Amino acid sequence: MSLDGFIAGVDDAMDWIFDYVVADGVPEMIAATGAILAGRRTYEVGRRDAGKETGEAYGGAWSGPQYVLTHDPPENAPNADVVFLTGDIREAVDVALRAAGGKNLEIFGGEVASQCLRLGLVDELLVHIVPVLLGDGIRLFTSTGGTHIDLETLGTAQSGSVTTIRCRVASLIVS
């Protein structure tokens, strides 16, 4: 995300991020990932920016089950590894966690991540912060819906100009 909290710029622009992507740590993260859960908007932006219709994660470097939570699933999925889910987010997380087979479930998209946080469905956050101010766009966390969330920092790392912070969700206080 940008230093001012955006994961995409105006019109879902994400081209800026490729100026900062560093290969360090990516193979480790890919190896620890068992499944991905994304929102439909994030999935479509990824397909657009990758220039592929398949929606391959990490430019095709990772393969495995991908779940897209949506109100409007397409009739035909463009990739056999992509499953479109409708309904309750708790059920979607449960399905994706089972598919992860004990590995990490990565959650992509500000709205899906925010919903999961509000419902206590996230145990850790891994955020890559790049030194750019976008000024406007799509925020990483859309809203906590009045839920106060305490985080415990587990570690930080620097790779090139990217700072990564890893936090554990310590407590949730619903207002």
Task: Describe the protein.
With 175 residues, the chain is an alpha/beta fold. It has helices at 26-32, 40-50, 89-100, 110-118; strands at residues 6-8, 33-39, 66-69, 82-85, 104-108, 124-129, 138-139, 147-159, 162-174. Strands 4-3-2-5 form a 4-stranded parallel beta sheet. The chain has a 3-stranded antiparallel beta sheet with strand order 6-9-8, with no helix packed on it. β8 (147-159) and β9 (162-174) form a beta hairpin. It is globular and about 40 Å long. The model has no long low-confidence stretch (mean pLDDT 85).
Corresponding CATH architecture = 3-Layer(aba) Sandwich
Shape: globular
Mean pLDDT: 85
Number of DSSP strands? 9
Domain count, please report it. 1
Helix-strand makeup class: alpha/beta
Q: CATH topology, what is it called?
A: Dihydrofolate Reductase, subunit A
Q: Please identify which CATH superfamily we are dealing with.
A: Dihydrofolate Reductase, subunit A
Estimated share of beta-strand residues: 25-35%
Give the gist of this structure.
This protein is of the alpha/beta class and 175 residues long. It contains 4 helices and 9 strands, in the order βαβαββαβαββββ. Helix content is 22%, strand content 33%.
Topology (elements, then pairings):
Blueprint lengths: L5 E3 L17 H7 E7 H11 L15 E4 L12 E4 L3 H12 L3 E5 L1 H9 L5 E6 L8 E2 L7 E13 L2 E13 L1
Parallel strand pairs: 2-3, 2-5, 3-4
Antiparallel strand pairs: 1-7, 6-9, 8-9
